[in-house]
């Protein structure tokens, strides 16, 4: 048994020795095959640098050796006198002077610096906002970028036939991501409003001309053998009579009478024989009025009448200011300019009439140009032009999703709206959109200020609406109190129909949102403000009920309130137009005063 174990151990040693010799031979072949120039360079650099513990020491030694060698060579050449140790600095001075005096370089550096400073400032603003809010810096910057760009928006097209609810539904689908961009049809581009019927039945000019042309077709046969001048006069007379008759008939059909209710003058029918008589009479008059048949005395009398008429016209329309500023000033300025150019006021005698003539020519040209421009302006204003109204308006809407908040943005008519509440934003934009399509003024909205704040790296919309003392709800409350307390016509009283508009106009920027003004006003009555219904009479004696608003702390006597309302321009019935305010029931019923009487109904 022991012999077998010894034989096994001897065999294992032989096998291990053979494997070792094989591995050594393989290693020698592998290392020989990897001895390339690049590997040799790497091995040399590695040995030169050394281990990580020795790298810093060897680098310092190498730096000392190289710098010392360079210094030794330089000292050697200076000491031997083969090279000069000094040189001219003119090239450096010239280069520095060219850079310092290069204003184009300053402009470029200023532009680059301004761009870098602006970007850095907005970056710092975003970081400052992120420090004090729950929004990250990336979210703040993305909100600002999204509000500035219309990329990724959905195009919505509305026309005048859409109702406000339909427009709101379009916006809600777009904010929910369930709508695609719309494309206008051919009939939805720009459509001009049809001429408005005045209600008096006055026919259109084109219609009158068309009907007159149809009615004169039968006249051509009766004009054979008549001269061209006479035929034109006959046709002109008949067309004039026909147009007057058409207008009179249409006016009478609608119950309209000219001259404050007096009947229109009847238009006499023109018979064929009367037309022939008029034709001969007109032909004779045309022959008699020709210049060849007039005597010299008649021509002189006509000239004298024309001269007298012109003198009267000039005397009536003479305007000394126009003559002075449009004629005299250019003429005198021209003469003075000639003296300045010649650098002397003294000329030969024949030069002064020439200068005066040139000045008169310039002044007359200036005056005639002014008169021509004025006549052209008057004629252009006399022309009746049919106004055009945009019946189609595009609104862009998009949804911006971030981990912290989802922002909704809309563009409409040059206004940008933003809000976190898509229902409120859709309601506000649809109201303004519908007003624009109907040709009405677009009221300001709080969402416009939201969009401005988001662009300025301030996405805290709720804090701005309820906490800002300049443009938020607090500012609206202060402006309502200030408007009522500072009222002077009458003192301390403002008509309710005018209060909202005054408060809207007091807002900074685009103004206060009239919807927010109505909400704030509803919360202030009756704790801060009090309403009083007053009946005033207009110029026709018709009574009208108007609500007056005043501070609860100002106890205005009944008779004084009536007198102030009756004689105040603010309470005029013609001024009832503005943003509406809600009807709020007063405790115990509103007090109703009748201007001009001592009757007061209800209590406070």
Average of per-residue pLDDT values: 76
- Helices, by number, come to 21
C-alpha geometry: flat
- How would you write the strand order of the largest sheet? 5-7-6-8-9
Sheet of most strands: 5 strands, mixed
Low-confidence stretches: 28-33, 186-205, 218-229, 256-288, 592-604
Share of helical residues: 55-70%
Tally the beta strands: 9
How far apart are the termini?
Answer: 129 Å
Per DSSP, what share of the residues sits in E-state strands of 2 or more residues?
5-15%
Would you write up a description of this structure?
With 604 residues, the protein is of the alpha+beta class. The protein folds into seven domains: 1-31; 40-82; 93-132; 149-186 and 391-456, no CATH class; 205-294, no CATH class; 298-382, no CATH class; 468-601, no CATH class. The chain is built from 21 helices and nine strands. The protein has helices at 2-33, 37-49, 52-80, 90-100, 103-132, 137-148, 164-175, 205-215, 228-253, 258-261, 272-288, 296-317, 320-342, 351-382, 422-437, 446-455, 461-467, 473-485, 496-506, 514-524, 558-566, and strands at residues 154-159, 392-401, 406-412, 415-419, 494-495, 529-537, 543-551, 591-594, 600-601. Strands 5-7-6-8-9 form a five-stranded mixed beta sheet. Strands 1-2-3-4 form a four-stranded antiparallel beta sheet. The longest helix has 32 residues, at 2-33. It starts with a helix and ends with a strand. Residues 28-33, 186-205, 218-229, 256-288 and 592-604 have low confidence and may be disordered.
């Amino acid at each position: 048994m022991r012999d077998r174990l010894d034989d096994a151990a001897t065999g294992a040693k032989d096998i291990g020795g053979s494997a070792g010799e094989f591995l050594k031979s393989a290693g020698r072949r592998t290392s020989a095959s990897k001895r390339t120039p690049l590997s040799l360079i790497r091995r040399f650099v590695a040995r030169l640098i050394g281990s990580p513990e020795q790298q810093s020491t060897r680098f310092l030694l190498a730096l000392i050796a190289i710098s010392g060698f360079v210094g030794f060579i330089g000292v050697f050449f200076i000491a031997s006198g083969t090279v000069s140790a000094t040189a001219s600095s003119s090239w450096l001075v010239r280069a520095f002077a060219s850079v310092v005096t290069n204003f184009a370089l300053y402009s470029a550096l200023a532009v680059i610096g301004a761009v870098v400073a602006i970007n850095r400032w907005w970056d710092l603003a975003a970081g400052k906002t992120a420090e004090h809010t729950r929004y990250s810096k990336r979210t703040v910057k993305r909100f600002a970028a999204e509000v500035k760009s219309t990329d990724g928006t959905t195009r919505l097209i509305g026309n005048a036939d859409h109702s406000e609810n339909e427009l709101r539904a379009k916006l809600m689908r777009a904010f929910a991501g369930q709508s695609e961009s719309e494309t206008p049809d051919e009939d939805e581009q720009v459509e001009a409003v049809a001429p408005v019927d005045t209600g008096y039945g006055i026919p259109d000019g084109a219609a009158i001309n068309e009907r007159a042309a149809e009615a004169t077709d039968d006249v051509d046969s009766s004009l054979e053998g008549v001269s061209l001048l006479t035929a034109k006069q006959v046709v002109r007379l008949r067309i004039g009579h026909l147009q007057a008759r058409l207008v009179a008939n249409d006016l009478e059909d609608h119950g309209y009478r000219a001259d404050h209710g007096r009947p229109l003058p009847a238009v006499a029918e023109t018979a064929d024989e009367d037309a022939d008589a008029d034709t001969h009479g007109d032909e004779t008059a045309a022959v008699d009025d020709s210049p060849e048949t007039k005597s010299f005395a008649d021509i002189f009398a006509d000239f004298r009448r024309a001269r007298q008429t012109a003198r009267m016209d000039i005397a009536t329309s003479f305007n000394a200011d126009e003559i002075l500023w449009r004629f005299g000033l250019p003429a005198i300025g021209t003469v003075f300019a000639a003296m300045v150019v010649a650098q002397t006021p003294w000329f030969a005698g024949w030069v002064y009439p020439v200068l005066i003539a040139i000045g008169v020519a310039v002044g007359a040209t200036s005056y005639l140009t002014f008169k021509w421009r004025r006549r052209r302006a008057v004629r252009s204003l006399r022309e009746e032009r049919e106004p055009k109204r945009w019946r189609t308006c595009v609104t862009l809407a998009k949804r911006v999703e971030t981990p912290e908040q989802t922002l909704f943005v809309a563009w409409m008519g040059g206004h940008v709206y933003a809000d976190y509440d898509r229902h409120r934003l859709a309601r506000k934009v649809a109201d303004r959109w519908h007003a624009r399509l109907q040709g009405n003024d677009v009221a300001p909205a709080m969402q416009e200020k939201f969009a401005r704040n988001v662009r300025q790296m301030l996405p805290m919309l709720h804090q701005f609406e309820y906490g800002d003392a300049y443009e938020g709800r607090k500012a609206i409350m202060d402006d309502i109190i200030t408007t009522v307390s500072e009222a002077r016509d009458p003192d301390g009283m403002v008509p309710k129909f005018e209060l909202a508009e005054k408060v809207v106009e007091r807002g900074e920027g685009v103004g206060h949102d009239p919807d927010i003004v109505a909400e704030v006003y509803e919360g202030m009555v009756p704790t801060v403000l009090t309403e009083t219904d007053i009946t005033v009479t207009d110029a026709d004696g018709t009574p009208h009920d108007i609500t007056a608003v005043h501070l609860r702390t100002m106890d205005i006597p009944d008779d004084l309130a009536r007198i102030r309302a009756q004689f105040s321009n603010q309470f005029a019935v013609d001024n009832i137009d503005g943003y509406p305010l809600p009807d709020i029931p007063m405790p115990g019923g509103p007090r109703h005063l009748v201007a001009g009487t001592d009757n007061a109904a209800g209590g406070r």
